[in-house]
Amino acid sequence: MFAVVKIAGQQFRVQEGQSLYVPHIEGATGDKLEFADVLFTDSDGNIAVGGDVKVKVAAEILGERQGDKVIAFKMKRRKGFRKKKGHRTLFTQIRINQIA
Question: pTM higher than 0.85, yes or no?
Answer without folding.
Answer: no
